[in-house]
Amino acid sequence: MRCSLTKVLVGSLLLLTVYLLGRSDLLLTQPGESASELTWPLAKSEGASASWVDGGNYLPLNVSYRLLAGVPAIKQRFLTIGLASVKRKKGSYLLPTLASLFSQSSSKERASMVVVVLLAEFDPVWRGVTLDEIRAAHPSELDKGQLLVIHVPPQFYPPLTALKRNYNDAPERVSFRSKQNVDYSFLMHYSSSQATYYLQLEDDVISAQSFLSTIHKSILERQAVHWALLEFSSLGYIGKLYKAADLPLLARFLFLFYQEMPCDWLLTHFRELLVQKEQILIKPSLFQHIGAFSSFKGNANPLKDMSFEKDVYSNPVADVYSDISVYKDHVPRLAWEAGEGYFWGRTPELGSYLTVVLRAPAVVTSVRVVTGFEGKDVLLFAVVELGQNVETTVRGEKSCKDFRPLGIMNNGMFEKKALEMEFGSSTSCLRLRVTGKHKDWIAIMKIRVTVKTDLHTSLVNGS
């Protein structure tokens, strides 16, 4: 990262400037007579009472939006996903990005989110072609209000040329990153009333399976923690989650300082202004960069997030026990928790176990177990079981009184889906029980479970 300004001084100056300029009412420029051009009087999100913008006195942002496709929802949803897309010299990744977002989400998850795409390109031919492609690929999502496509005409943009050359950037790069800041500002401003939370992505990513459920779980786990920004990717401006109540201020912050520095630098300052000093980066990452070439001059851009896990699952909260001797800090719970950790134990005996005890019983719909690395330390002989009726063992651990087998490990792997068809009642335990002699240590890399939940009701109720 290039040399940055002194954080405390810059943060104080930015906050003072926003406050001094933020004493007038929100005004939206009235649109022309075109039927496709809409002005959105954005209502404050639920829960905005804790936000800086609660009083409604913030810097005016004069902008009209053209709704190109989609039907805005009447009720606020759980999550808005924002993308800004422009014409690239080498290919386009927008359609694969949209396809991944929807295909990696269940029908209930899709009903709890809305994807807002800002076509931020001024070339009308490109916009027309791209819009036709989106309509052809996602007619259902557009009709259901799960996908909205918008555009802001160029007359609402501030000057984008002859700008200050901070950091000695080339003029064309300054123009590019400055416009990007304005694009994000307009996108966030529009999105602030669509849902309770807002996720910023770029237009060249793929998503992990059930990413929305993982985000929901991460929010629940941090209810007692003050946060302004949760990060679900370590790359650029990908996978950044905000509370929608903070978006009006963030949109104006980006607009006000659009030519000063790149967006990810500004957003670090904004996070600190909202009194979150430390980064909260959640692993494994839920989004992976797939663009081989950047939108700026088509330069090669092979960045990859090494902690991305496409098949990540949002395991329910649980306690994990095992009688297998642990090697160093590779404790049993690491096999259950999201992240790069794993359980590494010394050679197990016949009857050794690893037991997961759910803190709330649930109907398990799928189980996946992965053991060993590079063909070594594989759990070869074990049965996978589901249990009910929690009890305390003689070792002082929690376990279940009654277990039913799901199946056996196959070359260190186990996977079974649609379990609710066979085991329809709630489960409290998942157990791996060793059934044969092993010569080597074992490494349980991942235990991934999905459970049946009324996700839509849960998200709508804000739980």
Automatic annotation (TrEMBL):
- Where's the MGAT4 conserved region domain? 62-308
InterPro entries membership: Glyco_transf_54, MGAT4
Determine the domain of life of the protein's source.
Eukaryota
Q: List, in alphabetical order, the Gene Ontology terms for molecular function in this entry.
A: acetylglucosaminyltransferase activity
Q: What keywords sit in the KW lines?
A: Signal
Q: Which residues form the signal peptide?
A: 1-24
Q: Name one Pfam family in it.
A: MGAT4_cons
| Biological process (GO), any one | protein N-linked glycosylation
Answer yes or no on keyword Signal: yes
UniProt protein name:
Alpha-1,3-mannosyl-glycoprotein 4-beta-N-acetylglucosaminyltransferase C-like
